[in-house]
Amino acid sequence: MADEPKAPEAPQSDATEASESPRAALPRTDDKSPSPGFESRDAGSLPEPEKTASPSPATTEEQAALTAKAPSGSSESNTAIQSDAEKAAKIAEARAKASAAKEAASEKPSADAAAPSPAPGAPKAPVKKKEEGPKPTDAANHALVRKIREQLDGAVIEASEFLGQLSIRVESSRIVEVCDFLKRDAATLFNFLSDLTCVHLPDRIEAPFDIVYNLYSIPANERVRLKVAVDDSDGVETVSGVWPAANWMEREVFDLFGVNFRNHPDLRRILLPPDWQGHPLRKDYPLEFIENEWTGKHLPEFTVVQQEQLEQRRAYGLEQLSEIDERLAREFFRQGKEVMSKDK
C-alpha cells in the first residue's frame, strides 16, 4: 500500500493555537480533507504582499468633503455648515458685483458730471410747450363766399374755414335773403336745414347771442354754417318761410335762450310750462334750484300726513311723482280723498 499523504506542516503559531484549543485535537471531518491516494506536491511559495504605507485616517470634515455626504451622527451640524457656506458665497458674489459696478461707473465719463449742478432754490427749466393745434383760416376767397357777395352785396361780414368746415357770418337783417338764395340756387341748392341752435356769449354786451344755421346740400353733399349776432329783445327774422322745419327749432331757442324771432307763426314755449320764469340754457341762469312763482303756484306745501304718504309712495318705487302722478295726488288731497287706504 502506498503511504498516506502527509498533511502540510502548519506553522508553529497554529500548532500552539491547536494545542491550546480543545477543538484542535478533534479530527477534521469536512469535505475538503484529502482523499485516499492523493499525492501532494510542492507548488511553491506565494510572493509576500508589498508593504505600503497605510493612509492616515481622514477627519470628519474631510470625509464629508470627499464623499459629499455628511458623516454619521453629525447631520445637523453639517447642514448648518453648508448653509453658512452658501450664505458666505452669496455675500462674496454680491460684493464682487458691487465693486465691479463702482469701478465701471468711475471709469465711464458721466454726461451729468460735465454739466453744472443747479444751485439750490434756482427755478426749474421751462417746460416745453405742446405744439398748437389747427386754427381757423380766412375763407374770403372761397367760391361760395365770393358767389354770395356777388349776388348779395354787403350780406357777408366775414368767413372762416376750420378743418374743412366753412362758417359765414351774415348781417342779421339779411339772413332771410341769404338762406333763400342758398336754398334756391341751382349750383349750391342747400335744401336741408339740419339744425338751428344758439350760443350765449355774455361778455359780448351789444349782441350776446349767436344764432347758428347748419345747412346741408343733399345733391352736392356739402355743408355750410351761417352765424348771426343778435340781441334777445330785438331778435332776428324767422326763416320758417324758407324751411318749415325751422318752426320748432326757433321755438326751442326762444324757450331755452329767450331770443325773439320776428314774424314767427307760433312763437311760444315748447319744452317748459308757459309761465316758467327764466331761460335755463343761458349762462347767467342759476344752477341750483330756486323757489320761484311757478313752484309756489303749482306745488303747494303738503301737511305732515300728506308728506308721509308721499314718502311712502316713493318708497314703493313711484319716483315720477314730480310729473303727472304727483299732480294727481295733490288733486286728491285738495278734494279730501285719501291716496292710500287706511288700515282698519
Question: Which terms would index this structure?
Answer:
344 residues; 6-stranded mixed beta sheet; two-stranded parallel sheet; 33% helix; flat
Describe the SSE topology.
Elements: H1 12-20, H2 60-67, H3 75-107, H4 111-114, E1 137-138, H5 143-151, E2 156-162, E3 165-170, H6 175-184, E4 192-200, E5 209-217, E6 222-230, E7 236-237, H7 246-257, E8 261-262, H8 293-298, H9 304-315, H10 324-334
Summarize the model shown.
By secondary structure, this protein is an alpha/beta fold.
Report on the structure:
- With 344 residues, this protein is α/β, with parallel strands linked by helices.
- The protein has helices at residues 12-20, 60-67, 75-107, 111-114, 143-151, 175-184, 246-257, 293-298, 304-315, 324-334; strands at residues 137-138, 156-162, 165-170, 192-200, 209-217, 222-230, 236-237, 261-262.
- The strands form 2 sheets. A 6-stranded mixed β-sheet has the order 1-2-3-6-5-4, with helices on one face. Strands 7-8 form a two-stranded parallel sheet.
Main pleated-sheet profile: 6 strands, mixed
Query: Which stretches of 5+ consecutive residues score pLDDT under 50?
Result: 13-27, 68-73
Radius of gyration: 58 Å
Q: Distance between the terminal alpha carbons, to the nearest Å?
A: 148 Å
Q: Share of helix among residues?
A: 25-40%
